[in-house]
């Protein structure tokens, strides 16, 4: 029997951080044992804000290398580049024509990012979630594993699919399969190191706010040493007055592969002076094998290009028939 399918992706802007790893990639690695995985680099999404053409291709390869370094097996999972499949843009255009503008005006990420762009906010930034819906629905996945911040985009994706099915399909014969979001509680919201109420983000101007997966050990240690804390003694989860404490304990829990109860017991009497070196050491040790593999992969571009060429072919074999099905349902000439 065919395995259930998952699809997910990461935007190719900047380095990947602990939020991307713990909120997304780590779950994909676990799911790949029992699922057919389609994982891609969202480079068309990366150009919705001003970008540097000299870095775009390099960033795409870096993300591919990170997927593999974190444990995605390119022989089993399909790893591909969004812009290499024109199906994504074509389906996005079709979705544009059935998506009410009001649905996009409500998107939280658009509002947050648009403020930063001022007068220069592009049409593409507003359209970002529609392209994301196309990315997903082309592959008819069962599940889309993402962090908490993508929840609204996933709901929009489901609404677009339902609308297209309602307008151009029938209840017995839906055109598109409607996927479920998979948001794991642990790691779904990794917060900034400088403010425990804000999510860790690639676009935060402060480098100190995040730990990149390729940060060298001394940088990781320094960032953790400087991370915002509070004056309390004794560490605890889930105290709304102590968001930084909850976040740093959560990182320790995930990176040391322990249960929440075990970490709560271990750290309840600790002060920051004892906990921070422990967290730094744990983070460095968890990232060391990923960094070693990443460096190895980045020095073998031929291999990476081969993985992406294979991925493109496997992705296209699924995406093209879905696009054709939508076009047929909408009445395009066949
Ligand atoms: P992006 O590149 O912002 O993030 C990639 C993945 O990492 C998760 N994530 C986090 N999880 C926990 N804590 C954080 N601080 C944190 N920051 C990021 C995100 O939830 C995401 O799962 N729009 C998407 C890329 C995309 C996509 C798709 C994803 C394009 N098309 C189709 C899934 C399916 C994005 O920008 O993710």
UniProtKB/TrEMBL annotation:
One of the Pfam families matching this protein, by short name: tRNA-synt_1b
Reactions it catalyzes: tRNA(Trp) + L-tryptophan + ATP = L-tryptophyl-tRNA(Trp) + AMP + diphosphate + H(+)
Entry GO MF terms: ATP binding; tryptophan-tRNA ligase activity
Binding site for L-tryptophan: 135
Main location class: cytoplasm
EC numbers for this chain: 6.1.1.2
Locations listed in the record: Cytoplasm
Source organism superkingdom: Bacteria
Protein family (similarity comment): Belongs to the class-I aminoacyl-tRNA synthetase family.
Record protein name field: Tryptophan--tRNA ligase
Gene behind this protein: trpS
